[in-house]
């Protein structure tokens, strides 16, 4: 079987890729699979470019961990997606604890975003400049940024990113916007407002954390709605979890579900690529966040007792078949 990235590129997409995280890179079996351009043509740092990791103290920037991921991408010729500039989670305490006023916080958001994006200028294909700004009911999430600045924090960050790197694609990334519904409509309205206000915005990240047997049926229709806004989008964090224990039937359904998502991207030209939120169950975020769920990735773990050794699951074939347009 050819690699998934090779198949994606043959099909006219920019990449098939994966998230990864610094601790995982000590696992040489893991890296031997990850560092194969035919399989993974794109990398997203799972954690090491987040705010707490890059500006732990006011104005004190550290790119050491981020650079490990950026260098891995560069040495393998992989596309890099930056993740992320402004997010309500994983903030260092100083951002939230100081009760900054609007003028102060606006400068902090602009400086954080501009410094981060500027540091990696020329190395990134895209940045998730704004991460998860919406509530599931479509209203703006009331985090420190919104509470202090209203929705102006979004344009402040996007403009700072554009000024710092005129060539990188600027994305807003979120979940539960992968299907037709209130939250997707709200994201489309946000994009339209930014466009009307001449705020730079190039793309939308559809995270795509799904559940086996519950993959939405309106993914293509929803993608077409984003495409109609005149911007690109990507599947940025794909995984499809199941309630454990895994069974052969669940694996087959998961194969179908991966097929459904990847083939949706194949059907809409403006879907530029697909990123899985790590390729192996060993390093998936799912079990720690959703107790009783797991097995969300296309490769299994490397638990030799369970006869697992980073084997491809049926989900892998679902992806490969979709990428071949079958
Ligand atoms: O680094 C510390 C380590 O020192 C400590 O011993 C350990 C104990 O819990 O925690 C480690 O930090 C964890 C970090 O991942 C690195 O592994 C945090 O607790 C944990 O909360 C953090 O989870 C990450 C989560 O984002 C929150 O930032 C996940 O790995 C990461 O996969 C997840 O990714 C998010 C995307 O950024 C946005 N979309 C949703 C997606 C899944 O939640």
TrEMBL record:
GO terms, biological process: xylan catabolic process
InterPro entries: GH (IPR017853), GH10 (IPR044846), GH10_dom (IPR001000)
GO molecular-function terms, A-Z: endo-1,4-beta-xylanase activity
Segments forming domain GH10: 1-322
Protein name, as recorded: Beta-xylanase
Catalytic activity entry: Endohydrolysis of (1->4)-beta-D-xylosidic linkages in xylans
Keyword Hydrolase: yes
Native organism: Postia placenta MAD-698-R-SB12
Pathway: Glycan degradation; xylan degradation
Record keywords: Carbohydrate metabolism, Glycosidase, Hydrolase, Polysaccharide degradation, Secreted, Signal, Xylan degradation
EC number: 3.2.1.8
Pfam families noted in UniProt: Glyco_hydro_10
Keyword Ubl conjugation in record: no
GO cellular component: extracellular region
Family listed: Belongs to the glycosyl hydrolase 10 (cellulase F) family.
């Amino acid at each position: 079987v050819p690699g998934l990235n090779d198949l994606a590129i043959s099909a006219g997409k920019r990449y098939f890729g994966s998230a990864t995280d610094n601790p995982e890179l000590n696992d040489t079996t893991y890296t031997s699979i990850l560092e194969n351009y035919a399989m993974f043509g794109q990398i997203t740092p799972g954690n090491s470019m987040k705010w707490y990791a890059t500006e732990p103290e006011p104005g004190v920037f550290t790119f050491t961990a981020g650079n490990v991921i950026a260098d891995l991408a560069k040495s393998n010729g992989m596309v890099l997606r930056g993740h992320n500039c402004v997010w309500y989670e994983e903030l260092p305490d100083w951002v939230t604890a100081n009760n900054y006023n609007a003028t102060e916080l606006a400068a902090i958001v602009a400086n954080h975003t501009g410094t981060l994006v500027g540091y990696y200028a020329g190395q990134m294909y895209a940045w998730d400049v704004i991460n998860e700004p919406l509530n599931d009911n479509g209203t703006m999430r009331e985090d420190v940024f919104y509470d202090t600045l209203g929705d102006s924090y979004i344009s402040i960050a996007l403009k700072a990113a554009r000024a710092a790197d005129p060539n990188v694609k600027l994305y807003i990334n979120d979940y539960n916007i992968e299907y037709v519904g209130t939250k997707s409509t709200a994201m489309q309205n946000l994009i339209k407002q930014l466009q009307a206000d001449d705020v730079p915005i190039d793309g939308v990240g559809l995270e795509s954390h799904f559940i086996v047997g519950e993959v939405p049926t309106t993914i293509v229709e929803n993608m077409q709605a984003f495409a109609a806004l005149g911007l690109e989008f990507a599947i940025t964090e794909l995984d499809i979890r199941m309630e454990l224990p895994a069974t052969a039937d669940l694996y087959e359904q998961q194969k179908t579900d991966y097929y459904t998502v990847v083939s949706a991207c194949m059907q809409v030209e403006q879907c530029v690529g697909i990123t899985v939120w790590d390729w192996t169950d060993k390093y998936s975020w799912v079990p720690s966040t959703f107790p009783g769920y797991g097995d969300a990735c296309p490769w299994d773990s490397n638990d030799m007792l369970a006869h697992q050794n980073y084997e491809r699951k049926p989900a892998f074939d679902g992806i490969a078949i979709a990428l071949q347009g079958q």
